[in-house]
Amino acid sequence: MELTFKDAAKERIEKRLKPDTKLVLDFDDGVGPFSDAASCTLDVAFSLVLCRPDQLTADYDEHLTSNMGEVYYKGYADTQLDGNMSIDVDKMLRYKLTGDSGIIDPNMSLRDVQGN
């Protein structure tokens, strides 16, 4: 699996990165420290999480390659993902996750939990 951050998304995210930042593509299903609650709808919901290495738990047992380095995710969530995906910013400044099959999440959140 591969993930490409389009220029607009990459530019916005890079401003928040620290030398040891880990990127997590979090499937919002209630599992893991970054998932507050499972989605109660039939929609698929993802968040891009910026975290410290010590915040990355065993729940995120897989990673994919991207033009911003490794991106961790829950291995069982790969059924919701495509082989080739991208993250971009739409005209309303929302992050959008798309793949070979079309739009995966039209309103993906960005969560920076790194603290100071």
From TrEMBL:
**Pfam families the UniProt entry points to:** Fe-S_biosyn
Domain Core: residue ranges: 1-111
Transmembrane residue ranges:
none
Q: Which Gene3D superfamilies match?
A: HesB-like domain
Q: Which residues form a coiled coil?
A: none
Which InterPro entries does the record associate with it?
ATAP_core_dom, HesB-like_dom_sf
Taxonomically, the superkingdom here is: Bacteria
**What is the name of this protein?**
Core domain-containing protein
Source organism per entry reads Weissella ceti
